[in-house]
Prior knowledge:
Blueprint: E1 18-21, H1 25-37, E2 42-46, H2 52-62, E3 68-72, H3 78-83, E4 91-94, H4 99-112, E5 117-121, H5 125-142, E6 155-158, H6 160-173, E7 179-182, E8 185-192, E9 202-208, E10 232-233, H7 237-243, E11 249-255, H8 270-279, H9 289-312, H10 318-329, H11 341-376, E12 389-392, H12 396-405, E13 412-415, H13 424-430, E14 434-435, H14 444-447, E15 455-458, H15 463-476, E16 481-485, H16 489-502, E17 508-511, H17 513-525, E18 530-536, E19 539-547, H18 559-562, E20 568-575, E21 613-619, H19 621-629
Parallel strand pairs: 1-2, 1-4, 2-3, 4-5, 5-6, 12-13, 12-15, 13-14, 15-16, 16-17
Antiparallel strand pairs: 7-8, 8-11, 9-10, 9-11, 18-19, 19-21, 20-21
Helix pairs in contact: 1-2, 1-17, 4-5, 6-12, 6-17, 9-10, 9-11, 10-11
Amino acid sequence: MTSTLPLPGRTDVRSQHMVICGNDGLAQRLAVELDAVCGETVTVVLPSRRDEHGGRIDALHRDPNSPVQLLVSAQPDEQTLRAAGVERAAALALTYGDDQTNVTAALLARSLNPGIRLVIRMYNRERGRHLEQLLDRAVLARSPHTETGIVDVSTTVLSDADTAVPELVAAAALGEGPTLQVDGKVFRGVVRPAGTPPHASDLATLAVLSGTHRDDPRSQDSAETPGADGTLLLPDTRTSYHRQFTHGRLMLEEVTPDHHPDLPADPRGARDWLRGRLSHLPWNVFVSREVSSVFGLLAAVVVLLALATWLLVDAMPLWKAVYLPMLDIFTMGDPAIGEPPARRVLQLIAGFVGLAVLPLVVAATMNATEAFRTASASHPPTENLADHIVLVGLGKIGTRVLARLRTTRHQLVVIERDPHARGVALAREQGVPLLVDDATAPGVLDLARIAGARSLLILTSDDSANLDIVMAARETNPDIRVVLRLYDDDFAATVSHTMRASYPHALTRSRSVSALAAPSFAAAMMGRHVLGVMPVERGALLFTVVDVGGHPELEGFSVHEAFQQNEWRVLAVGSAHGPAPYVTASDTLGGGLGRRTDFDWRPPHGRVLRAGDRVVLATTRRGLDILMTGVQQHPPRS
């Protein structure tokens, strides 16, 4: 969620110092992201420099070429914020795992610097929405000139889970390539090998890749300027055309997934469906070792008492000798008053035995019933299911991924070992095939028809289990596309590299949630005019929205003429008086559940940009600096 203060025009030159306060991997990843795309000073406040994340930030701090500075403080109190330079900073990110800490620090920061951009990590969405409104009202009350759009001030509340989900879904459903969600649409950067013709879904050439590039736009060296074998960002048409025969191209592709929230009708008849459902019920839990032992003990006691009653009580029929001890064990019979002494003694013995055995019988029965209920919650897929996505883990991230994937035509199979996990109810409600079992157990992946699956999404919280699952899946289906969530970034990089080396023709992506969420936090820190950041090898492209009025680099030029090689390219054109393009992490993949705008994402090259227009640009960092500050670093066009 993002505030709705006016979009800035050309901003006055002011400090672009940025501050990050946090205590986990998101703060560290955000610092790395800003170090790559932001040329200004970045101060990181961490509770310790000796833990894993503090050590990495300290390594960046010691690098003489890095703008990252490290400040150690246990809490983001007023003294700490002043020491970090919040009073003169352009942006502050609060990424602590505790909402209250982030709220307190945000209120302090706004009082110290009413014009600072705030990016706040919060788990409670409703609280975040109220905080966002409160802080923006404070800005307007203390700095009325922001209504004119002179200063870029905003409050953005983000959830790392929400911002990571689109990338996970896109990787599983679409394949390789970083994604961007803007204006209710989904875009991705896709590599076209040398010599391949353009695709109808391609919108623009973002980069011509180096000759050593293979299949990942983030894997090799690059620069924002042309080199002998380097990557060229935002090349002109002629360069792109001539180099496409020897170099790969990174294209911006518009993704248009098909919506089909309802499962296809089952072609089988109701009787066949019922027969198949009954055959898959776990009846074997009622003959488990525990149940068999308890009921075997009960049967032995009944036999012994029946035999004793038959032998010791005169004229006792055999059926009655069995019937009466059973009533006595279950305390259902009448007292044996007036009957032979042997009968009365045996009744007492049966009563005491019942007191000892019945609790065991009740416990075993309840355990078996619970096991049956849990196991019968599974809804295995049909045997002929193929080309589907297998999702493992229905926690906080997995549930949101499931909800997003349900907006596409892809068929799903879900595996979750905890029957009480938050996503199990959603899977049942949506009619998604569900296996309530441990995905690392033998045979579970086979039940999910992993051999015919197109993608495997592994989102459990156990790194070791995730690795076990992916190795087992690759043994059955070597070409399956795998996307797995790992907490440790170094471990994730090692796993990804090893899997790509072992299975070069299959896609493997292993990322932490913090690594997936960091670009969205970085874009929010750079201002509301920055819609997203797309890594391209060692460089990055920024997607920005700019009002044409007041920008002589754009005003009066056609879409084609406004292009500047290595600096910016116009992607979409709309009205400056309408709603701006937006990025919202809660939108479903391609669902466009938020408001729509009238932006044209395929504008004619001859379309002349006027003062009343608003454009979406792909820019380099240098190009964004020129547009935002007006500092020309190249000769003006005639």
